[in-house]
Amino acid sequence: MKQHVPVSTIMTQNIVKLNLTDDLTKAESLFKSHKIRHIPVVNGNHIIGMLSYTDLLRISFADAVDDDDEVVDTTVYNMFTLEQVMTKKVVSVSPDTTIKETAEILAANEFHALPVCTGDLLVGIVTTTDLIKYLLEQYN
């Protein structure tokens, strides 16, 4: 297996993101329509937080509805702001961080996604799914 492959080779560059002014209803809609579990929160293109689908589940009964259902019950979401629910202490990696180093960070912290940043400028996102796909390619 290659030792020094940068994470930029497997990261998602077409990023679904939220602005701090967006509400949680929009967040759930994005999670469902894009079939994703993590969304970076930005101010412009500068990362300021991360929201996971699990963060939403903690404050709602969103898991009680069908994931294919595009209708979102906004009652609970209107009680919270995105800033109150998102993770503010974001750990990120740079595009030249190796895939191995990225996997070590994910494993050590029990994260499932990391924003990829140049400084605080968001340039991508890498998930455990990206890592698994990369590992599977190594066996072909």
Helix content: 25-40%
Per the principal axes of the C-alpha atoms, what is the gross shape?
Answer: globular
Radius of gyration: 16 Å
What is the chain-wise order of helices and strands? Answer: EHEEHHHEEH
Largest sheet: 3 strands, mixed
Structural class: alpha+beta
The parts where pLDDT drops under 50 for at least 5 residues are none
At the fourth level of CATH, the homologous superfamily is CBS-domain
Secondary structure tally: strands: 5
CATH architecture: Roll
- How would you name the oligomeric state of the polypeptide chains in this document? single chain
Order of strands in the sheet with the most strands? 1-2-3
Average pLDDT figure: 88
Share of residues in strands: 15-25%
In CATH terms, what is the fold-level topology? Answer: CBS-domain
The CATH C-level class name: Alpha Beta
SSE topology sketch:
Blueprint: E1 18-19, H1 24-34, E2 38-43, E3 46-52, H2 53-59, H3 82-85, H4 99-109, E4 113-118, E5 121-127, H5 128-138
Parallel strand pairs: 1-2
Antiparallel strand pairs: 2-3, 4-5
Overview in brief:
The chain is of the alpha+beta class and 140 residues long. Helices cover 31% and strands 20% of the residues. It has 5 helices and 5 strands; from the N terminus they run βαββαααββα.
What can you tell me about this protein's structure?
This protein is 31% helix and 20% strand. It has a three-stranded mixed β-sheet with strand order 1-2-3. The chain has a two-stranded antiparallel sheet with strand order 4-5. It is an alpha+beta fold and 140 residues long. The chain has helices spanning 24-34, 53-59, 82-85, 99-109, 128-138; strands spanning 18-19, 38-43, 46-52, 113-118, 121-127. The chain contains five helices and five strands. Keywords: CBS domain. InterPro entries: CBS_dom, CBS_dom_sf, Diverse_CBS-Domain. Residues 11-70, 86-140 form the CBS domain. This is CBS domain protein.
